[in-house]
Amino acid sequence: MARMRRLWANLCGSWFQLSRRFPPALLDEMAAAIAAGERHHLGEIRFAVESRLAPLAVLEGLAAAARARQVFAQLRVWDTEHNSGVLFYVLMAEHRIEIVADRGIAAKVAAHEWAAVCAHMRESYAAGQWRTGSLDGIAAANALLERHFPGDGGPRRDELPDQPVLL
């Protein structure tokens, strides 16, 4: 039964509002927030928003968490010097937010800390506060990374693009 609800959400949900909820100005703000935070820690943040899953993928049982891991690989978030990539994955049709952290980050930041970030974002999104939820999520991730994976104060190479991706 849950699979049919998921299929219906991916076919008929509010996924078509992707560009209204994540307009270019917000995407630019998010990129700036990611870049500013990365100056203070060794993490690399990527943010991906997917409107919906393909119906066949839903019928085959692809869950949001598995799709987030696919996107993590597709965007090469794992490809950092310190294994310090973090992916925010938002699946609009199913109201799901997943954070996937590479092994260098996962060894230092507990899963419950990422879950708290997701919960806060979900509350903001449910209230229609897409800008606030996104920017607060990025700020919370930057704070966690600065605490658990601090930089050395010197300049460093930006290993992954900061601009969010709409899938």
From TrEMBL:
Descriptive protein name: Putative membrane protein
Segments forming domain TPM: 28-143
InterPro entries (alphabetical): TPM_dom
Pfam families per UniProt: TPM_phosphatase
Domain of life assignment: Bacteria
